[in-house]
């Protein structure tokens, strides 16, 4: 492991001290800066010295030595706050970690703590760790968590994660958290392996993030006893208050499927909450178009509008997550020793910055992007286009299950009895019912049933983007589903829509069929178009991309289409097994 990527070496530390002694010149001086001291919760005025990527001094003095290369910035009439932290990112919602980070920087989110699920599915560990190291060269601080489960029901779950792999991830310096615990019911009752991984995370003094939707106080207490530190699943002020009462760090979501932040803050007014030290924000892996106005900056804006004290609203995006992850010595404040992540604001209550310093370099200056992030050579890490060595035969589009899945909302499905004729080539347009199939990307198995509530017209949709990396087919016409599949295969992965014998939309996902390397601004336009087309064809909810992602996710009720078959999640029963091809 390249340890120098994760900490300053002795030589660098000596140089930092030499700047204070006047032997070296700082690289930047932020002169007469009004900045938020998140410890005192006060706005102070100081001169801030930066040497390369680190803040080395905050105070009244100017340095004894400067050089021609020292940049002196007059900060009068601006307000400086620490760079924002997204503590719970899922950086593979069509975008990739690099494109998300590049976009996040433009509105002041300078640190991302990322899900590692796709690297577990797509890469061997050596390649994954090389990629983590590569991303340390970005101006964004990129951290990761280590999952303890696949969040679905894989055919080879025991091989997906083993002790050695999880412990290697937990010991990696870029990994600062264990979880999230989507498999918490198993851990609570019988999963000794998951409990062991939790304890190893605690031994390494890293956080354990829960996933406890609707959990009672007793359940939260039990999981606290087992080692959980935080949870982001509150959907009301009362639920958030309950977590704080028990000593959890609690992130409030403002996400595309759970935009709860404003309502929770309104609830908290009635509960007279005035202590914010263990409250964070998260956008919880929102789909691209939700980020049109930014990421954590938008959360701060909502908090200020809802009456959270301004100083606390910024601390919730900086100091609080730094403390949660035991990174306070490196991140979360404008203070000596911290990474030089600094946002420049026009006003205290305007959290979208006009300028951004990331690791001491300008990412945004006076509203203009200064430096693009160094590109990632995805092929170097075997993250190429998806290549299938098999084809789909039309006669495999068979749907004969007696039980289908009916959408309650974007992501929750309940069972229903199927009455439609399964052998038809096209389903009646008068019904909001479609065929649905999950196919192994290696071509070994398939699972099929019906899906109610996704469309009442669309001929076919095929997506290589899914929670397990397998291929989803949905539609009312078998011919259009086959057409969309063939085009998706030609693209090397993506989301393709076909209707009445024509391709009407395609979104290439050139990184293993799961992510694109297109800029976020372009992707936002594409996803907005996809959503509009699907809604025009009868999609009645708000986030079809999340529907595709979570069709096979077994941490949600009630029925799922998984690699092992149609599953009753609550009973953990396989109602109808997958069919081998």
Automatic annotation (TrEMBL):
Residues 428-571 form the Adenine deaminase C-terminal domain. It catalyses: adenine + H2O + H(+) = hypoxanthine + NH4(+). The keyword tRNA-binding does not apply. The keyword Ribosomal protein does not apply. InterPro entries: Adenine_deam_C, Amidohydro-rel, Metal-dep_hydrolase_composite, Metal_Hydrolase. Gene3D superfamilies: Metal-dependent hydrolases (3.20.20.140), Urease, subunit C, domain 1 (2.30.40.10). It holds the Pfam family Adenine_deam_C. Its EC number is 3.5.4.2. Keywords: Hydrolase. Residues 79-362 form the Amidohydrolase-related domain. Belongs to the metallo-dependent hydrolases superfamily. Adenine deaminase family. This is adenine deaminase. It comes from Piscibacillus salipiscarius.
């Amino acid at each position: 492991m390249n340890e120098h990527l994760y900490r300053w070496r002795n030589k660098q530390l000596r140089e930092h001290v030499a700047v204070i002694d006047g032997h070296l010149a700082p690289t930047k001086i932020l002169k007469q800066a009004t900045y938020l001291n998140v410890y005192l919760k006060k706005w102070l005025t100081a001169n801030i010295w930066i040497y390369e990527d680190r803040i080395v001094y905050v105070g009244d003095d100017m340095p004894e030595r400067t050089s021609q290369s020292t940049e002196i910035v007059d900060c009068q009439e601006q307000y400086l706050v620490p760079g924002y932290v997204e503590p719970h990112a899922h950086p593979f919602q069509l975008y990739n970690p690099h494109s998300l980070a590049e976009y996040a920087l433009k509105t002041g989110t300078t640190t991302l703590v990322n899900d590692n699920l796709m690297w577990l599915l797509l890469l061997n560990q050596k390649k994954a760790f090389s990629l983590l190291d590569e991303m340390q060269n970005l101006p964004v601080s990129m951290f990761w968590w280590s999952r303890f489960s696949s969040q679905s029901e894989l055919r080879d779950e025991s091989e997906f994660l083993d002790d050695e792999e999880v412990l290697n991830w937990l010991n990696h310096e870029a990994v600062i958290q264990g979880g999230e615990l989507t498999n918490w019911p198993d851990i609570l009752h019988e999963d000794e392996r998951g409990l062991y991984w939790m304890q190893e995370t605690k031994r390494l003094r890293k956080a354990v993030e829960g996933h406890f939707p609707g959990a009672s106080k007793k359940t939260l207490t039990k999981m606290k006893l087992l080692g959980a530190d935080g949870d982001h699943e509150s959907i009301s002020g009362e639920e958030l208050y309950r977590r704080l009462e028990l000593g959890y760090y609690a992130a409030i979501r403002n996400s595309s499927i759970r935009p709860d932040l404003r309502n929770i803050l309104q609830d908290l007014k009635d509960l007279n909450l005035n202590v914010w030290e263990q409250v964070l924000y998260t956008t919880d892996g929102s789909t691209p178009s939700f980020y049109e106005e930014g990421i954590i900056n938008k959360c701060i804006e909502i908090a200020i509008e809802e009456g959270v004290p301004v100083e606390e609203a910024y601390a919730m995006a900086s100091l609080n997550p730094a403390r949660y992850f035991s990174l306070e010595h490196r991140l979360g404040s404008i203070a000596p020793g911290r990474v030089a992540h600094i946002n420049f604001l026009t006003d205290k209550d305007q959290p979208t910055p006009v300028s951004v310093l990331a690791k001491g370099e300008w990412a945004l200056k006076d509203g203009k992007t200064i430096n693009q992030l160094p590109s990632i050579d995805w092929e170097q890490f075997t993250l190429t286009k998806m290549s299938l060595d098999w084809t789909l035969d039309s006669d495999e589009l068979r749907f004969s299950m007696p039980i289908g899945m009916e959408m309650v909302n974007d992501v929750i499905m309940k069972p229903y009895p199927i009455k439609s004729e399964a052998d038809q080539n096209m389903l009646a347009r008068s019904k909001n019912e479609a065929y649905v199939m999950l196919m192994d990307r290696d071509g070994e198995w398939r699972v099929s049933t019906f899906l109610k509530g996704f469309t009442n017209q669309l001929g076919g949709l095929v997506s290589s983007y899914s929670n397990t990396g397998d291929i989803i087919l949905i539609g009312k016409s078998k011919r259009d589903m086959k057409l969309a599949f063939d085009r998706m295969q030609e693209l090397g992965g993506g989301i393709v829509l076909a209707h009445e014998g024509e391709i009407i939309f395609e979104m290439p996902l050139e990184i293993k069929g799961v992510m694109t390397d297109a800029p976020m601004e372009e992707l936002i336009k594409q996803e907005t178009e996809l959503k509009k087309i699907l809604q025009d064809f009868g999609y009645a909810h708000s986030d079809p991309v999340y529907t595709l992602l979570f069709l096979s996710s077994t941490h949600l009720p009630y029925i799922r289409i998984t690699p092992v078959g149609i599953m009753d999640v609550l009973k953990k029963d396989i109602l109808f097994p997958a069919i081998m091809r």
